[in-house]
């Protein structure tokens, strides 16, 4: 997912532009398996840009993209099945994207970002809980960086990920709720 905090058109606020550092950003997911355990995995490369309104963060916006075709749960057969039409159908829909609509500052370094998540060609509004670094810092190479953690939970069936099997005990083979966590690091554009 590409993350972008972008200024509103015509804004008079100080806009800072940051690029997501894919080498230091990772998107993870967790979903229940057979109602007894949780399968965790990592999505592919995360890319994007952050346009941050420093004077009023609520005027910022986010756009994000994740390479879904690189999904990795540590089990090659399962990963192949997750890439198939039963789940993400990555031959047709290789990426998952997010575009924010509004940002709300909560207490401390916490924010709520509401926007459109598009997966498997279906777009739905979701809310992201974001906890960030309080202020930018300069790395050993003289680059300005920021970072944070993003969390949300989605129902996979809302996005057409409908593989479904009810077990004899009434439980689901694969749970519907998917927890997503993204640890993101951004570098100020020069």
How would you sum up the major sheet? 8 strands, antiparallel, barrel
Could you report the average pLDDT, rounded to the nearest whole number? 87
Radius of gyration (CA) equals: 18 Å
Topology pattern, helix = H, strand = E? EEEEEHEEEEEE
Q: Return the CATH architecture.
A: Beta Barrel
Could you give the topology of this structure?
Blueprint: E1 15-20, E2 26-33, E3 37-42, E4 46-53, E5 61-67, H1 76-83, E6 95-105, E7 110-119, E8 122-132, E9 137-138, E10 144-155, E11 174-188
Antiparallel strand pairs: 1-4, 1-11, 2-3, 2-11, 4-5, 5-6, 6-7, 7-8, 8-10, 9-10, 10-11
Please provide a written account of the structure:
This protein is mainly beta and 190 residues long. The chain has a single domain (26-41, 67-188), classed as Lipocalin, CATH 2.40.128.110. It has one helix spanning 76-83, and strands at residues 15-20, 26-33, 37-42, 46-53, 61-67, 95-105, 110-119, 122-132, 137-138, 144-155, 174-188. It has an 8-stranded antiparallel beta barrel with strand order 1-4-5-6-7-8-10-11. The longest helix is centred in the middle third of the chain and has 8 residues, at 76-83. It is elongated. The model is unreliable at 1-12 (pLDDT under 50).
